[in-house]
Amino acid sequence: EVKNFGASGRTILSKGDYPYSETDTYKASPEYQPDIVLIKLGTNDTKPQNWKYKDEFMTDAQQMIDELKALPARPDIYLAYPVKAMTSAFGISDSVIVNGVIPMFRKLAKKNKLKVIDLHSLFDGHPEWLISDGIHPNDKGAAVIAEEVKKAIGEDTGNGKK
């Protein structure tokens, strides 16, 4: 069973313009007691009004990871690198994704022994998987993401989790 606790346009940064941690969606997610959690955030954090708080990115992300790790279900947590931003629409920066968000996610994954799903490399060279803004996946891009997540989780199938 898969449940979507995503919220559009949100940030990991608690001082970001639209922090995910303040959404009703995030607040309701512990009740589901997930076996597996995919954190796919970071793109909106690269906007200039948000990235000015970059020094808090690791702390805010670690807090979210700690809250998820503390759930009674003890879910397996996956970090997904943001998809490649083909444009700078909305102030989103692929350079910041590559040089800021991904290295921080890499450190967090290592520190917390989390699995990583590299959606950034997956989308490299595939602008046709994005809508015309060059940021958001289209139906094909969403299907590619779903397949990659399924593949990553499927590789860990001995864990008895749904």
Overview of the structural elements:
This protein is mostly helical and 162 residues long. It contains 6 helices and 3 strands. It has helices spanning 24-28, 48-51, 57-69, 94-112, 119-123, 139-154, and strands at residues 36-39, 76-81, 115-118. A 3-stranded parallel β-sheet has the order 1-2-3, with helices on both faces. Helix 3 (57-69) packs across helix 4 (94-112). The chain is globular. The model has no long low-confidence stretch (mean pLDDT 94).
Outline of the structure:
The protein is mainly alpha-helical. Helix content is 38%, strand content 9%.
Rough shape?
globular
SS class: mainly alpha
Radius of gyration: 15 Å
The order of strands across the largest sheet is 1-2-3
Give descriptors for this structure:
about 160 residues; single chain; globular; mainly alpha
Layout of strands and helices, then pairs:
Elements: H1 24-28, E1 36-39, H2 48-51, H3 57-69, E2 76-81, H4 94-112, E3 115-118, H5 119-123, H6 139-154
Parallel strand pairs: 1-2, 2-3
